[in-house]
């Protein structure tokens, strides 16, 4: 369950979108958490995702919007490594670790090359990824690798609740993390009514990795922050917030 804003990301991406004036290209738009907020702030946004189920949820959300907001959103079926468009964008974004779905260096460079080709002059690429915390990794290795852990319990409007738990394994050789997210839904009387499991594989990247990849893909101006408030990266558990341009 992702909140409407994660550590201030929605506000940051909205501000960047308003600053550039649009259109904005969002990679890995999913069900539209950021897409909808950008459109509601008055900016045209192209929402790209390769997952048909997520695009279907986004389209259902669009149907409930006022026409003037719905008309600002273009839903695109595409892979962030290979997408093509005749449009050139002053801002391309990949919120909430979407870039980490590129699991190999080949995938990462393919994606960055496509981004560079689709940026307008003086355009910027903005994205965020988690910093690979050694402390957190240490809790998921050896006998603790893949152990199920309770994440939180969330109330439902009908008086029931959802329990979220997850299990993680880190492949430190290939810099990959495999996560399983489980959602157990309970009725008001505590009876289990439904369980669902979401399997997720992500790469993880350190700041030197990010700088090297961006530079190799032709980006020259690269800024890495430790949060959406623009503070320097200093802590192991900081969110890495990155802006890059080719000029």
Q: Helix segment count?
A: 7
Q: Would you state the CATH class of the largest domain?
A: Alpha Beta
The N- to C-terminal Cα distance equals 37 Å
Class based on secondary structure composition and strand pairing: alpha/beta
Instruction: List SSEs in N-to-C order.
Output: HEHEHHEEHEHEEEEHEE
What is the arithmetic mean of pLDDT? 97
Estimate the helix proportion, in percent: 25-40%
Q: Sum up the overall morphology in one term.
A: globular
Low-confidence stretches: none
Strand order of the largest sheet: 3-2-1-4-5-11-10
Q: Biggest sheet, open or closed, and with what strands and sense?
A: 7 strands, mixed
CATH superfamily annotation of the largest domain: Vaccinia Virus protein VP39
- Percentage of residues in DSSP E strands: 25-35%
Rg over CA atoms: 19 Å
Give the CATH topology of the largest domain. Rossmann fold
Can you lay out the helices and strands and say which pair or pack?
Layout: H1 9-20, E1 24-27, H2 33-40, E2 45-49, H3 52-63, H4 67-70, E3 73-77, E4 89-94, H5 105-118, E5 119-130, H6 134-138, E6 149-155, E7 161-171, E8 176-186, E9 192-203, H7 207-216, E10 221-225, E11 239-245
Helix pairs in contact: 1-2
Description:
The protein is of the alpha/beta class and 247 residues long. It folds into 2 domains: 9-132 and 205-245, Vaccinia Virus protein VP39 (Rossmann fold), CATH 3.40.50.150; 134-202, N-terminal domain of TfIIb (Single Sheet). It is built from 7 helices and 11 strands. The strands form 2 sheets. It has a 7-stranded mixed β-sheet, sandwiched between helices. Strands 6-7-8-9 form a 4-stranded antiparallel β-sheet, with no helix packed on it. Helix 1 (9-20) crosses helix 2. It is globular.
């Amino acid at each position: 369950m992702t909140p409407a804003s994660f550590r201030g990301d929605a506000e940051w991406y909205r501000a960047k979108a308003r600053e550039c004036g649009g259109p904005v290209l969002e990679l890995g738009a999913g069900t539209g958490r950021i897409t909808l907020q950008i459109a509601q702030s008055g900016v045209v946004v192209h929402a790209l995702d390769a997952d048909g189920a997520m695009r279907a949820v986004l389209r259902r959300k669009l149907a409930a919007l006022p026409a003037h907001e719905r008309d600002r959103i273009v839903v695109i079926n595409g892979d962030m490594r290979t997408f093509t468009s005749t449009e050139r964008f002053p801002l391309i974004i990949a919120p909430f670790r979407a870039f980490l779905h590129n699991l190999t260096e080949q995938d990462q460079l393919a994606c960055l090359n496509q981004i560079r080709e689709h940026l307008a002059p003086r355009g910027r690429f903005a994205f965020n990824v988690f910093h690979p915390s050694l402390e957190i990794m240490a809790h998921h290795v050896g006998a603790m690798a893949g152990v199920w852990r309770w994440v939180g319990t969330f109330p439902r409007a009908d008086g029931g609740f959802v329990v979220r738990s997850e299990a993680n394994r880190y492949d430190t050789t290939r810099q990959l993390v495999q996560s399983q997210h489980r959602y157990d839904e309970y009725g008001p009387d505590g009876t289990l009514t439904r369980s669902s499991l979401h399997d997720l594989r992500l790469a993880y990247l350190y700041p030197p990795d990010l700088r090297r990849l961006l530079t190799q893909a032709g980006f020259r101006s690269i800024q890495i922050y430790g949060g959406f408030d623009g503070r320097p990266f200093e802590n192991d558990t900081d969110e890495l917030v990155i802006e890059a341009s080719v000029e």
